[in-house]
Specification:
InterPro entries: CheY-like_superfamily, NreC/VraR/RcsB-like_REC, Sig_transdc_resp-reg_C-effctor, Sig_transdc_resp-reg_receiver, Tscrpt_reg_LuxR_C, WalR-like. This is Response regulator transcription factor. One of its GO terms (molecular function) is DNA binding. Keywords: DNA-binding, Phosphoprotein, Transcription, Transcription regulation. The chain has 10 helices and 6 strands. By secondary structure, the chain is of the alpha/beta class. It folds into 2 domains: about 120 residues, 3-Layer(aba) Sandwich (Rossmann fold); about 70 residues, Arc Repressor Mutant, subunit A. A 6-stranded parallel β-sheet has the order 2-1-3-4-5-6, with helices on both faces.
Length: about 210
């Protein structure tokens, strides 16, 4: 039996069809519907109640950011993965505000896309390294560094930068010569100081507040 139901919201017909074909090849994934704009995505989510919505950012009638915002009001348990291009990354911060759990490039390998869907369906967050770096590039252009305002230590800032590079806890531990348990403690401290609860929210706060000068 299919475990993860997926709705695809994408205005380009060929991409919708190809994503549907690729995802339905996986025994645990089922594409239950496709939408060509944000308004359709909201209506179909309410009706079909998919676990995962793959959401294009730029669509007619209603863009993916607004559609995500509305979906989170009516179906907060449905999880949204934004499909972005390099040109869309300026809109990622808006998607973070809207409540999306994942941010990946459309050019992602199909196997990696399926893995990202499974990851997000388990309640985790998926942010591609390219998107994360774009968020921090935006924060680097800000005129004011606010890391001292939040009381982040130099090591915590290093860990936060590793998160922005898309590194898992084990990779952060290896890079900074720490134990994985210590990394988890640093991440817990970062969440507490920034008043956030996951990596996506931490990256959003870092981007909004310009934590790196």
């Amino acid at each position: 039996m299919k475990e993860i139901t997926v709705l695809i919201a994408e205005d380009q017909d060929i991409i919708r069809k190809s994503l549907g074909i690729v995802l339905n090849l996986h025994p645990d994934l089922e594409v239950v519907g496709t939408a060509s704009n944000g308004a359709e995505a909201v209506e179909m989510t309410n009706r079909l109640q998919p676990k995962i919505i793959l959401m294009d950012i730029q669509m007619p009638v209603m863009d993916g950011v607004e559609a995500t915002r509305q979906i989170k009001k009516i179906r907060p348990d449905s999880k949204v993965i934004m499909l972005t291009t390099f040109q869309d990354t300026e809109m990622v911060a808006g998607a973070l505000h809207a409540g999306a759990e994942g941010y990946i490039l459309k050019a992602i390998d199909p196997a990696d896309l399926a893995a990202a869907i499974r990851l997000v369906s388990r309640g985790e967050t998926m942010i591609s390294q390219e998107v994360a770096r774009s968020l921090f590039a935006r924060s680097l252009s800000g005129p004011v560094a606010k890391d001292s305002e939040y009381g982040l230590t130099e090591r915590e800032l290093q860990v936060l930068k590793c998160i922005s590079d898309g590194l898992a806890n084990r990779d952060i531990a290896d890079k900074l010569y720490l134990s994985e348990g210590t990394v988890k403690n640093y991440i817990s401290n970062i969440y507490s100081k920034l008043n956030v609860h996951n990596r996506a929210s931490a990256l959003k706060k870092a981007s909004e507040e310009g934590l790196f000068s």
